Amino acid sequence: MTPAVPPRHFRSGEGKSYRLGGITLTFKLSAAETAKAYTLCEAVEPAGSGASLHRHFSYDETHIICEGQYDCQLGEQMLKRGPGDMMFVPKGTPHSIRCAGPQTGRELIISSPGGIFDAFIEEVATLLGASGAAPSATPAADFGTIAAKYGIEFLA
């Protein structure tokens, strides 16, 4: 039996990419390619960047650290993570992840079911424009409204 989606391979940085500030998010596999089972994203984050404390109610998330050092919060736990470490975040769990530096970090993010995280990132990237930086005329409330649409709540 032939798989519905052909096997694929990627090099680092290959795939559909978005810039959010200094962070580059590259989607390797979309929900369409995994029968909505999951989305696979590579995140490259300069020191000091990452996601502030938040939770999502519509998908689980796994972070696998490939390069760099990260400071994370998972529920009430404060964690330090490095290459080879991972963090599973069940939906509804408050969490944050920040590249602690000094070098740039790289992680793989698996969100399940697929399609929600990537749709959120695409909408935010569209709001921010090609530069990845918020236009001065765009109210910060737009970001919160977009997040809420995808079941994401920023707590800090």
**Number of helices, counting only DSSP H or I runs of 4 residues or more:** 2
Strand content: 35-45%
Helix proportion:
10-25%
CATH class: Mainly Beta
CATH fold descriptor: Jelly Rolls
- What's the mean pLDDT score? 89
Q: Strand-and-helix sequence, N→C?
A: EEEEEEEEEEHHE
CATH architecture: Sandwich
Number of strands: 11
Structural domains: how many: 1
User: What general outline do the C-alpha atoms trace?
Assistant: globular
- What is the CA–CA distance across the termini? 49 Å
CATH homologous superfamily annotation: Jelly Rolls
Radius of gyration: 15 Å
Secondary-structure-based class equals: mainly beta
Biggest sheet character: 6 strands, antiparallel
Q: What's a concise summary of this model?
A:
The chain has helices at 116-128, 141-149, and strands spanning 16-20, 23-29, 39-45, 50-56, 60-67, 70-74, 77-81, 86-89, 95-99, 105-112, 152-154. With 156 residues, it is mainly beta.
Describe the secondary-structure layout.
Layout: E1 16-20, E2 23-29, E3 39-45, E4 50-56, E5 60-67, E6 70-74, E7 77-81, E8 86-89, E9 95-99, E10 105-112, H1 116-128, H2 141-149, E11 152-154
Antiparallel strand pairs: 1-2, 2-3, 3-10, 4-9, 4-11, 5-8, 5-10, 6-7, 6-9
Helix pairs in contact: 1-2
Report on this structure.
With 156 residues, the protein is mainly beta. Helix content is 14%, strand content 41%. It contains two helices and eleven strands. The strands form two sheets. The protein has a six-stranded antiparallel sheet, covered by helices on one side. A five-stranded antiparallel sheet has the order 7-6-9-4-11. The termini are far apart.
